[in-house]
Amino acid sequence: MPVIKGTRIPARLIVGQLAGGESIESIMEAYALTEEQVRATLGYAAERLGAETVYVVAGQ
After folding, report:
1. Is this structure's pTM higher than 0.85?
2. I want to staple 22 with a disulfide (CB 3.0 to 4.6 A). Which of 10, 17, 33, 39 is the partner?
3. What is the pLDDT of residues 27-39, one digit of tens each?
């Protein structure tokens, strides 16, 4: 499971919280992260998604 460098915080936790509407600032405060760490986590997620084909099924 990928974690944020220098921490044990799973990248998926941060991405999930952002997707759920949490602000970058509140995540930075809650987990003692820098803005750079949060944005790098988003970059990692975007890179991973770019390497996969994702199919969206209507109604689900």
Report:
1. no
2. 17
3. 999 999 999 999 9
